Amino acid sequence: MLIVHTIAALRAALPVPGTCAFVPTMGNLHDGHLALVRQAAGHGLPVVVSIFVNRLQFAPHEDFERYPRTLERDCELLQLAGCNIVFAPDEHELYPEPQTFKVLPDPALADILEGRFRPGFFTGVSTVVMKLFNAVQPRIALFGKKDYQQLLVIRRMTQQFALPIVIEAAETSRADDGLALSSRNGYLSAAERARAIELSWALRTLAGRFGDGVAPLELLEAQALEALAAQGWQPDYLTVRRQDDLSSPSDDDEREGSWVVLGAARLGATRLIDNIEFKA
Ligand code: PAF
Q: Most CB atoms within 10 A, among 14, 18, 183, 190?
C-alpha cells in the first residue's frame, strides 16, 4: 500500500483518470470506514482512501482541533482492508491559499436538518469533496448512509456539475447494540456509550408511529423530541423525510412510500446523528 501526501504523487501513482474507487474520510477509522473500503475493493479497481480533517466543515466552536488524528493506526487498518493508496495531504497541500472559491449546495437540501444546526457545514463538505474528486479523479466514490444528507448533497453536486463519477452508497455499520459507528462515539463516557442507542430507538418509535398513520407528523415529531429530552438528551431534530430529496410529507400525503427517519441529539457533550430508511 502506497501512502502519498501530495496531489502530484497521487497523479504519478494513478496517471489515468477514472481508474480507481475512492473512499474519502477524515481518518480515525472504525469498522464502518473499513466496510466502505472492502465494498470499494469489490469493484476490482485500485482503492484510494483519503484522510484529511477538513477545517472548512467545522464551525469555530466545533471539534476541529480535538478531532483525533491517528494516521499510523489508520494506515495499518487500511492495509488489512485492501486499500491500495492512502492520500493524506496536509492542510497546505489542499488549501495552499485561503479557499475563497467554494461549492454552494442547493439550500433546499443543504440548509435543512444538519445544515440548519451546522450552518456552512455542507458548503465545507461539498468544497473539499469537489477538491478531492479533482485530485483523485475516481470512477466510483463511496459514501456511507450514516451521513444520509451528506450522501444526497454529494450525489446532487456530482449530477449538477456532470462529474464523471458514480456515487455509491454503503449501508450504515452498527455496533452489537445497534449504535451507528462514528468516530465521535469515542468521545462518549462508558455510561453515555451504554445509553447512546436510545437515539436509534427514538427514531424507530417515530417511524413506527408515522407508519401507523393515525396522528399528524408534526405532533409525532414534537412528542419524539420531548421523550428524548425527558431521557436527558438535547435533541436538535427527529423527523421523517422522503428518501430522495429529504422533503417533508404534508399531512394530506399518502404515507405509503419510501421514507427515512433522521435525528441528531447531544448526549452530554457529544452530538450524535443517525437515520433509518423504512417503507410505510
Ligand atoms: O464524511 C466525512 O468523513 C467527511 O464529511 C468527508 C466526506 C470525508 C469530507 O471531509
A: 14
Tell the residue number behind the cell numbers 447531544, with chain if given: 266
Total of domains in the chain: 2
The residue contributing the CA closest to ligand 1 atom 6 is 25
Active site residue 5: no
Relative to the CA of 144, which ligand 1 atom is closest?
1
Are 57 and 136 in a shared domain? Answer: yes
Mean of the per-residue pLDDT values of the chain: 97
pLDDT digit string, tens, across residues 6-31: 999 999 999 999 999 999 999 999 99
173: its cell numbers: 455499520
pLDDT digits (tens, 9 = 90+) for 91-131: 999 999 999 999 999 999 999 999 999 999 999 999 999 99
DSSP state of 197: T
Residue 175 covered by a domain: no
Nearest residue CA, atom 9 of ligand 1? 125
Q: Is the CB of 272 under 6 A from ligand 1?
A: no
**In terms of C-beta distances under 8 Å and separation of at least 24 residues, what long-range contacts does 88-91 make, across chains too?**
88/3, 88/4, 88/5, 88/27, 88/50, 88/51, 88/52, 89/5, 89/6, 89/7, 89/50, 89/52, 89/135, 90/5, 91/55
Clarify whether residues 256 and 166 are in a common domain: no
170 CB under 6 A from ligand 1? no
